[in-house]
Amino acid sequence: xxxxxxxxxxxxxxxxxxxxxxxxxxxxxxxxxxxxxxxxxxxxxxxxxxxxxxxxxxxxxxxxxxxxxxxxxxxxxxxxxxxxxxxxxxxxxxxxxxxxxxxxxxxxxxxxxxxxxxxxxxxxxxxxxxxxxxxxxxxxxxxxxxxxxxxxxxxxxxxxxxxxxxxxxxxxxxxxxxxxxxxxxxxxxxxxxxxxxxxxxxxxxxxxxxxxxxxxxxxxxxxxxxxxxxxxxxxxxxxxxxxxxxxxxxxxxxxxxxxxxxxxxxxxxxxxxxxxxxxxxxxxxxxxxxxxxxx
Length: 295
Known about the structure:
alpha/beta, 3-stranded antiparallel β-sheet, 7-stranded mixed β-sheet, single chain
């Protein structure tokens, strides 16, 4: 069934465009990436946290260049699950040749069983609309299905944490109550309608969720230690472990960081992982990954 996920020439062009956009975002936000635990051999379920927004979430764009940095070529089959809202806005259909699919268990399981890697952002729109005070936190809001998916497919879970997108605007609230009052959860499967300040809109209700001009704040990312869900193990428990690991890593990445004057106050230290050797200094994310691998 792998042929169902083959990338044609149009898909390759789209992939290359997405990677170029991701690299442009990386330069704009002075993105520093630590490969951490790296990429496993074969298929895996890559779990990425949201930054802010829907189809134009900076974390989603950076995921494209991260996958390329980890060795995934534009012509390699890969599936990225995206919220149904992208299809409602007419964006999802245009990205399908590149492997983008509406979030769903069936297509993800089919891809993983065909040895095709899958990228998922399980936090949904609530994680993508988190308020300013929680901008450096990861919360899946009880969604644990990704762990059961990995268990059924027999593949590892590879968490990727990206932080800093919440500093590119000031989001006051996720607007969950307003979204519920407007029945957006029934009409558009939207549980959030964020209210905040963003360029060029200023104070807005939900507009920035569709797209905004980000302030060039410093962003960082890393690959956390891998998780496996063995047969008979409770996948919900593993999902909570993944969430806790990603949440702790996001806070660690953000600690001591000046998102706007980093170039003046704190030179970059989160470059690609060096080869181990005498005097090698690893970042906190890499050290945590190595401790997890040795455990």
